[in-house]
Amino acid sequence: WCRFLLAALVSPMKVGLRMDFSVLLEPLGFVKVLEWVFAIFAFATCGGFQGETALLVSCEGVVNKTVTAAFTYPFRLNTVVFSAPDPKGCGGTWTDAYLIGNFSSSAQFFVTLAALVFLYCIAALVVYIGYNHVYQQNNKFPLTDLTISVLTAFLWLVSTFVWAKALAGIKVSTGASIVPGIESCKAPGTTCHFLSVTSMGILNVSVVFGLLNMILWAGNVWLVYKDTNLHSQWNRISESP
C-alpha cells in the first residue's frame, strides 16, 4: 500500500488516476470516512483533556485555603504537585504533595493508535477515490487492506479496554480518597478536605469512541473481505456439489 500510494502521488498519470467520489456513497468508502472522523474524536477527547483536583486546607496562619493540582494528558499524575497553601508552607509543616500513579502508557497507546488510524484512513481514501479501479483489479490491495483492518480492530479492542482501566485509576487518584495519603495533611494543626475535581465526562466519551471504532473496524473487515478472492473462492466451494 505505501509503495503503491507513493507511486500514485509521484506519477498519477502512470498509475491511472481516476477521481470517483461516488465510492464514498458505497459501504466501503462511507465506513472509511466514519473511521476517519471517529479517530479524530478519540484522539481529541483523550489527548485534549485538562483538569485539576482541589483541596481545602487549614493550617498555621491559613484558614480554608484552596490548593490545586492540575493534570492533563498523558496523565503522569506522580509528577503533579499540589500548590502550597501559603509562601511559608504552613509554618514549615507543608511539604510537596504529589498525586499517585502514572497512566501515560495506556493513554499514549490509545491516542497514538487514533493518530495512526487517522493517517491510514486518509491514505485509504486516496486509493478508494483516485485508484479504485486498480484496487479492484489487483487482489493484493484488498488482501493488504483486510489484514490491516483485522489488526486495527484488534488494537482498538485492546487499547480501549486498557484505557478504560487506566481512566478508572485516574478517577481514584484524583478523587476524595487522595486526602488520607497526603503526609502534609497529617501535620499537627493541619486539616484537609476534598473540594472538587474536574468532570471527566469527556474522557468517558473517549472510551465510547474507542468502542465505536472497534465496531466500525470489525464491520470493515467483512466489507473488505468481500473484495478479496478469498470470498469468491469460498463461494465457489460452497456452491460446488
TrEMBL record:
Belongs to the synaptophysin/synaptobrevin family. Residues 23-229 form the MARVEL domain. PANTHER family: SYNAPTOPHYSIN (PTHR10306), SYNAPTOPHYSIN-LIKE PROTEIN 1 (PTHR10306:SF9). The keyword Membrane applies. The gene is Sypl1_0. It comes from the Eukaryota. The lineage of its organism: Eukaryota, Metazoa, Chordata, Craniata, Vertebrata. One of its GO terms (cellular component) is synaptic vesicle membrane. Keywords: Glycoprotein, Membrane, Transmembrane, Transmembrane helix. It is found in: Membrane. It is a multi-pass membrane protein. Its main location: membrane. Pfam families: MARVEL (PF01284). This is SYPL1 protein. The chain crosses the membrane at residues 109-131, 143-164, 202-225.
